[in-house]
Amino acid sequence: MLHDVVIIGGGPAGLSAALALGRARKRVLLCDAGPRRNAAAEHVYNVVTRDGTPPDEFRGVARQQLARYPNVEVRDLPVTSITGSRGDFRVALPDDAVTARRVLLCTGMIDELPPLEGMRELWGRSVFQCPYCHGWESQDLRWGYLVGASSQSHWLTFAIQARGWTRDVVVFTAGSVVVDSAARATLAAGGIQLETQAVTRLVAREGRLEAVALADGTRVACEVLFTHPPQRQVAVVAALGLALDGEGYVQTDPMTRETSVPGIHAAGDLTTRMQGAIFAAAMGTQAAAMLNTELTLELVTRPA
Question: pTM for this one?
Answer without folding.
Answer: 0.93
